[in-house]
Design a protein that fits this description.
The protein has about 400 residues and is an alpha/beta fold. About 35% of the residues lie in helices and about 25% in strands. The longest helix has 25 residues, at about 65-85.
Length: about 400
C-alpha cells in the first residue's frame, strides 16, 4: 500500500466524460489498496471565463475579489470528482484548500504557501476515503481566501505530497510528459524520460506550460520526486528529480517559448545613483515580477538613459498605471509598452561545461532573419526577446539546431 498524491489539470477534467475517466483511473489505484489524495484544477476554460466576466464588470478588478471569484472554479471540480467516485461506489470527500490545511500569505492572486497542516486530510484517508483537494487556493491565518497564481494546482499537489510524506506524486495533464519543446508548434519535439529540478525549473519559468515554476522549486527544496504523465493513456511520463552525472552529458535539454511577455521601456530616465533602485522598488511593492532588464549607455552633460524590462502581459496594465503616476517623481520622458514580443529560451545542464552555445543560437536566429531585442543568460539557459510574429519560426529553427539529433541518456 502506498500513499499517492495525484494532480489533474484543467484539460484532464475538461468535461463530465473526462472527470469520469479520472475517477476510473483513481479507482485502479484505490482497488490495489493505495491511499489517494487527488488535487484538481478548474475545468478547462473556466478560469479564463471567470476572468473575462470580471473584466466585463470593471477593467482592473479588486485582487481580493478576484481570488474569491477564481477559487470557485476548483471548488466546482472537487465536488464533481467526488460525485464521479461515488458513482463507482468509492468513498470520497472533497476539501477546499483551506479545509486541507493550506495556509498562505496575504498576497492576492499570487499567494505563497507558508504552512500546511494536513490533519483533516489524514483523518479522511484513515477513514477510507479518497481525498479530493481544490488546487490553486489556500487561506491566510485570518481566514481570507487566496489563490496561488497560474498553474497553482501543481504547487498545491507538490506541497501536499511533501506535507503528507507521500510515496509518489503524479502530475497528470493532456500530454505524455515533458517534451524538448511544445509539440503543438514543433512536430519533431520528443518526450524527455527524465530531467533535473534545475532544468525543469528553468523551462517552467521560461514558458513551458507543462509545469508551474514555483511547484518545481518547492519540489527541489523538499526533495519531492514527481512524474508528469498523461491522464488520457497509460504511457510512462517524465521523472523530475535531482541531477545525475548522466544528465550532464546532454548539453541542451529543451527549448521554450513564452508568448505572455510584454516589454516596457522608460525613455530618458535620469542616469544617476538610486534611480533604478526606486523604479524596481515601486514594481516590487506592486507585486509585479520583472524578468529581463536592459539599460542603455547614457551620453551628454545631463545624462539620461532608456531602461527596458519585461513583465507578464497580465501585469502590463498595472505597470503602466504605476508609472503614469511616477513620471514626475522619477523624471523620465515617456513610457513605451510593447505586447508584441515573445521570449525564446534554450535550457540544459550541460551548458556549464560547453562553450559556443550562445554563438550557435544567435547565429541560427540571424540566418533565419530574426532580430534579437534583449538577451538574458544563466549558467544553464539563454533567453532572447524577439518579435511575436516571428516567435514560432524562431522556436522551430532553434529546436532543429540543438535538439533534432540529440539522444537523451
Amino acid at each position: 500500500m502506498a500513499l499517492i498524491v495525484q494532480k489533474y489539470g484543467g484539460s484532464s477534467v475538461a468535461n463530465a466524460d473526462r472527470i469520469k475517466n479520472v475517477a476510473k483511473r483513481i479507482k485502479e489505484y484505490h482497488d490495489r489498496g493505495d491511499q489517494i489524495v487527488v488535487v484538481v484544477s478548474a475545468m478547462r476554460g473556466v478560469t479564463d471565463n471567470l476572468i473575462s466576466l470580471a473584466k466585463d464588470i470593471m477593467p482592473i478588478p479588486s485582487e481580493r475579489e478576484m481570488d474569491m471569484l477564481l477559487a470557485t472554479g476548483e471548488q466546482t471540480t472537487i465536488a464533481l470528482t467526488a460525485m464521479a467516485l461515488h458513482a463507482l461506489d468509492l468513498p470520497a470527500v472533497s476539501l477546499t484548500g483551506a479545509q486541507a490545511g493550506i495556509q498562505t500569505d496575504g498576497v492576492h492572486t499570487k499567494a505563497k504557501i507558508t504552512d500546511i497542516s494536513p490533519k483533516q486530510v489524514h483523518q479522511m484517508l484513515d477513514a477510507g476515503n479518497v481525498v479530493i483537494v481544490a488546487g490553486f487556493q489556500g487561506q491566510t491565518p485570518d481566514g481570507i481566501i487566496t489563490t496561488l497564481g497560474r498553474g497553482g494546482s501543481d504547487l498545491s499537489a507538490i506541497a501536499l505530497a511533501a506535507a503528507v510524506d507521500a510515496d509518489l506524486c503524479q502530475i497528470y495533464t493532456d500530454v505524455d510528459g515533458v517534451y524538448t519543446t511544445d509539440p503543438r508548434i514543433v512536430s519533431t519535439a520528443r518526450k524527455i524520460d527524465e530531467i533535473s529540478y534545475d532544468e525543469m525549473l528553468e523551462l517552467a519559468s521560461l514558458g513551458a506550460k507543462v509545469m508551474q515554476s514555483r511547484s518545481v522549486e518547492f519540489a527541489k527544496k523538499f526533495g519531492v520526486v514527481f512524474e508528469v504523465r498523461s491522464s488520457l493513456n497509460n504511457n510512462p511520463g517524465t521523472i523530475i528529480k535531482e541531477e545525475t552525472t548522466a544528465m550532464e552529458s546532454v548539453v541542451i535539454r529543451g527549448a521554450s517559448l513564452d508568448k505572455n511577455q510584454a516589454k516596457v521601456t522608460l525613455v530618458q530616465v535620469p542616469d544617476k545613483p538610486g534611480v533604478a533602485a526606486r523604479i524596481f522598488k515601486h514594481l516590487a511593492d506592486a507585486t509585479i515580477n520583472i524578468d529581463m532588464i536592459v539599460q542603455n549607455i547614457s551620453h551628454g552633460d545631463s545624462p539620461a538613459t532608456d531602461l527596458s524590462f519585461t513583465v507578464e502581459k497580465v501585469d502590463l496594465p498595472k505597470a503602466k498605471k504605476l508609472f503614469d503616476g511616477l513620471k514626475e517623481e522619477i523624471g523620465f520622458a515617456k513610457i513605451d509598452a510593447n505586447e508584441n514580443v515573445a521570449k525564446l529560451s534554450i535550457v540544459g545542464g550541460g551548458m556549464r561545461n560547453h562553450s559556443g552555445i550562445a554563438a550557435k543560437m544567435f547565429g541560427t536566429l540571424a540566418e533565419a532573419g530574426i532580430n534579437i531585442e534583449m538577451i538574458s543568460t544563466s549558467e544553464i539557459k539563454i533567453s532572447v526577446i524577439i518579435e511575436l510574429d516571428e516567435s514560432e519560426q524562431a522556436l522551430k529553427v532553434v529546436h532543429a539546431a540543438f535538439l533534432e539529433d540529440q539522444v537523451s541518456p
